[in-house]
Amino acid sequence: MLIFAYAFLTTLIHLAGAYFRYLPFSRILNRKLTARLWKALLLWSIAGLMINIYVTSVYGISMRTFKLLFFFGMTPYFILSVILIPRHLAQHFFVIGIQALYAFMLHSVASIILTLIYSTMTARLLPLQLTLWIGLFLLIYPWGEKLFTSLLPDKQFISDTKLQWYIALLPVSFYIGCIISITNVTFLPELSDRLTRLSIPLFFFIVYSLVHYNSREAIQYRQLTQTKERLTRQLQNLTKHTKMVQENEKAISVLRHDLRHSYRLIYALLEKGDYESIKKHIEAQKKLLEKS
After folding, report:
1. pLDDT at 165
2. 238-273 pLDDT, tens digit each
3. How far is C-alpha 17 from the geometric centre of its chain's CA atoms?
4. How far apart, in whole angstroms, are the C-alpha atoms of residue 174 and residue 172?
5. What are phi and psi of 53, to 5 degrees?
6. DSSP secondary structure code for residue 277 in this structure
7. What is the pTM of this model?
8. Which of 70, 72, 84 is nearest to 22 (CA)?
9. How many CB atoms neighbour CB 92 within 10 A?
10. I want to staple 132 with a disulfide (CB 3.0 to 4.6 A). Which of 2, 107, 110, 122 is the partner?
């Protein structure tokens, strides 16, 4: 029963990671593709659960099992996401690097809490660590969801071919640096060592959050500047239009005055019977109108 619970918790954590890796792409996926992606991920989770149970039953609940399941267990989920969300390979690498560091940070915090409670960290506490990981995941879920939903806000990341792979592989390189230092280590005996391990992803998230915030502020400032320029142009056009309307109103007022004068003149000539003068006046007004 303990083996099943351990394998189930591991699968649940992999699904949580897959969900966070899905969030940055959720805005560009339609319902059909989203349903197809999650159907594939859930089907693999069933197969993954069987594999996790088998590996755990063979090697037991140990740090070796823990590393096998978590270092390689996310790979099939990642491959499915790349296949079902194509043409975004660099973004996929960037997202999995961030998500791996996020998961690593939660594992570190969970192990620190258990070390403070039990004064040590052993294999028998690994199921409890996974349970604590899920608890921490749910506790800071609102912040994590916000982080991953807006993980790729800058279009330059997508369009700039020269920079995109450097940016994409940066969090992956941080993650590799974290796991290399503990590959051959069973358990870190000292609390200070665990705090040092936690500081690496924590430092990355702090730096990334600051850069991400500044980037969003710069984008918003650029958008506000563009909006201001557009409104200024609209105001200028409106001012020109208002001036033109005022000039037209003046012209119409003059035309009305001339028409009233012309009508009075024609009426006076009609009373005199001077039809020749009326004809000349009408011809003159016609020429003036054509000229206008």
Report:
1. 79
2. 888 888 888 778 877 777 777 777 777 777 777 777
3. 17
4. 5
5. -65, -45
6. H
7. 0.69
8. 84
9. 19
10. 110
